[in-house]
Specification:
- This protein has about 450 residues and is α/β, with parallel strands linked by helices.
- It folds into two domains: about 260 residues, Rossmann fold (3-Layer(aba) Sandwich); about 150 residues, Response regulator (Rossmann fold, 3-Layer(aba) Sandwich), CATH 3.40.50.2300.
- Helices cover about 35% and strands about 20% of the residues.
- The strands form five sheets. It has a seven-stranded mixed beta sheet, with helices on both faces. Strands 11-10-12-13 form a four-stranded parallel beta sheet, with helices on both faces.
- The longest helix is centred in the C-terminal third of the chain and has 19 residues.
- It is globular and about 70 Å long.
- The two termini are about 25 Å apart.
Length: about 450
C-alpha cells in the first residue's frame, strides 16, 4: 500500500475515524473506543428520493447497530485498505438517515479488525454479538474472515451479510451440502465456475502447453480451489489440461523451492493459485531467481491489489487476475447514485491511493443492509430482516443481486471479468480488463498477452 487516507478536513467526519496513524490499541488506551471497536455514529440514508422523505419524517427511531468485520492488519490487510474511506463516504453523502414507514433511524457502525486470522475473526464477532449487541453483522474479505464470523452469527441467531469470498469457499467451506439452508447468514460474490471461465478465456489467447502449476495454500480458499470434484481440476481436466499440484502449503510460508522445482521439471507454462499477497510476492521473486518464468500467470487473491504489483516491480507486467469491480464497471449505487467510476475517483482523490477492488463490495454491503431493512419494514424483527434478505433483488454498484435465484440457498452471484497488470500512464502498474466473455457489458481495454 502506498499511503494513508487523506480526506480533506472540511468533511464532517470524526478525526479519530480518519486518522489512520492512530492504532486501535492507542484508541482503546485513550478511552476513545470501547469493546475493541472503532465506533462511527452517523445518520445514513437511502439515495436522492429517500432524502426528501428523511426530511419529512415525523419521528426519530432507535439507533440501529451494525457490526463490521474485515482484515485491517496482517497479510490480508490490502482487502481492508478502503474500509475507512467507504464508511466515511457513506456518512458524508448519506447523512440524513434511513426512513422506514415515516420514522427516521440513525445508525452506529462498529468496526472490528480480524487481524487476518480466523480465530480473531470469531472472537470479535462474538464480542460484537454478545457485548455490543449489534442488530446486523456485515463482514468482508476472504473465507478466513467471512466464515468464522458467519458461523458465530448462525449460532447466535444474528442476521449477517458477507462478501468477498468465492461462494463455494463460504458455503461448502462451512460444512454445508447443496441442500443446506442457513437461516441467518447471506452472501454475495462470484463462484469458482466464474473464475475458471475467466481464466480459461485468458489461457486460450496465450499459446501454452496446457500444463498448469498450482500454488494452492492450506486454507479455505486453497482447499476449495484444489478440490477434485468441485474445484479447478474438475473444470480443466476435461479440457485437456494437466494440473501439477505439489500439495497445499501453509499460509505465511517463505520457502518455495520445492514448488518451483516441480513446476520447472514439468514445464508448467501456466501458473495459477490463490495465495495471500505476501506469500505470492515471495514465491514469484524466488521463481525469477531460480529461472522459472511461465508464459501466463493468473493469480487469484494476491494479484488483486496495486500494492502487490508495486512490490513485484517489472515482474508484475502481464500477470493476470480476476477483476470483480473497477471504475469502468457500468453500475451505480442504489444508495448514493454514485457510479463505479465516481466512487473509484473519489477514493483516489481523497486518499492519494490507486483505486482497489474491495471499494465497491464494501459499499455494496451497506446497500444490501439498508435495502433489507426497507424491505422488512421494521428494525425490531430479526426474522423479518432475514426474510427480506432471502427474497431481495437489488441493483448495486457491483452489479445486480438476487437471492431468490441461487446458485444455492443464501447466495447470489456477482459479475466477473479478467485483467492483466501493465505499466500505466497514471500509476506505475494498472489493471487492464482483457476478457469479458461472460459479461460483455463490462468494457475491455486490451487483449491477453504472454509474459515476456
Amino acid at each position: 500500500m502506498t499511503g494513508e487516507d487523506n480526506t480533506p478536513s472540511g468533511h464532517d467526519i470524526s478525526s479519530e475515524f480518519l486518522d489512520t496513524s492512530i492504532t486501535r490499541r492507542r484508541l482503546l488506551q485513550g478511552g476513545i473506543a470501547s469493546a475493541g471497536a472503532l465506533a462511527l455514529s452517523g445518520l445514513l440514508g437511502a439515495g436522492t428520493d429517500a432524502l426528501a422523505s428523511v426530511r419529512g419524517a415525523t419521528s426519530v427511531g432507535r439507533t440501529i447497530k451494525l457490526g463490521y468485520v474485515s482484515p485491517e492488519t496482517g497479510p490480508l490487510a490490502p482487502f481492508g485498505q478502503a474500509d475507512k474511506f467507504v464508511i466515511a463516504n457513506l456518512q458524508k453523502v448519506l447523512a440524513d438517515g434511513i426512513v422506514i414507514k415515516g420514522t427516521r433511524y440513525p445508525f452506529e457502525v462498529i468496526v472490528e479488525d480480524s487481524q487476518s486470522t480466523d480465530a480473531r475473526a470469531a472472537q470479535v464477532a462474538s464480542d460484537l454479538i454478545n457485548n455490543s449487541h449489534i442488530d446486523l453483522m456485515l463482514v468482508s474479505s476472504t473465507p478466513d474472515v467471512t466464515n468464522p464470523v458467519a458461523d458465530q452469527c448462525e449460532a447466535n441467531s444474528i442476521p449477517c451479510i458477507s462478501t468477498v469470498a468465492p461462494w463455494q469457499s463460504w458455503f461448502f467451506g462451512r460444512g454445508a451440502t447443496p441442500k443446506t439452508v442457513y437461516k441467518w447468514t447471506y452472501h454475495f460474490f462470484w463462484g469458482l465456475e466464474d473464475l475458471e471461465a475467466v481464466y480459461y478465456s485468458i489461457w486460450l489467447k496465450v499459446p501454452n502447453n496446457k500444463v498448469i502449476g498450482a500454488l494452492w495454500p492450506n486454507d479455505p480458499d486453497g482447499l476449495a480451489f484444489a478440490a477434485k470434484a468441485t474445484g479447478f481440476p474438475a473444470f480443466v481436466d476435461p479440457k485437456g489440461y494437466t494440473v501439477i499440484n505439489p500439495g497445499q502449503y501453509p499460509d505465511g510460508d517463505d520457502q518455495f523451492t520445492s514448488q518451483i522445482s516441480d513446476f520447472i521439471s514439468h514445464n508448467a507454462e501456466i501458473l495459477t493459485g490463490v495465495p495471500q499477497p505476501p506469500d505470492f510476492i515471495t514465491f514469484y521473486q524466488q521463481a525469477a531467481q531460480q529461472g522459472y518464468k511461465p508464459k501466463v500467470a493468473t493469480i487469484a487473491k494476491a494479484m488483486l491489489f496495486p500494492s502487490s504489483a508495486y512490490a513485484l516491480g517489472s515482474l508484475a507486467q502481464n500477470i493476470s487476475s480476476e477483476v470483480w469491480w473497477g471504475p469502468t464497471h457500468p453500475y451505480q449505487s442504489s444508495l448514493t447514485g454514485q457510479s463505479a467510476g465516481t466512487l473509484a475517483g473519489l477514493y483516489e482523490t481523497q486518499t492519494n491511493n490507486q483505486w482497489t477492488q474491495p471499494i465497491g463490495f464494501v459499499h455494496a454491503l451497506f446497500e444490501v443492509a439498508f435495502a433489507a431493512y426497507k424491505k422488512a419494514g421494521t428494525v425490531d424483527s430479526k426474522e423479518a430482516l432475514v426474510g427480506a434478505l432471502s427474497k431481495l433483488a437489488l441493483n448495486t454498484i457491483v452489479g445486480p443481486l438476487n437471492w431468490a435465484t441461487g446458485p444455492v440457498p443464501n447466495v447470489t452471484k456477482t459479475p466477473l471479468v479478467g485483467g492483466q497488470w501493465r505499466k500505466g500512464s497514471k500509476y506505475p502498474y494498472e489493471l487492464v480488463i482483457v476478457t469479458n466473455t461472460e459479461h460483455p457489458n463490462i468494457p475491455t481495454a486490451g487483449t491477453p498477452e504472454a509474459i515476456q
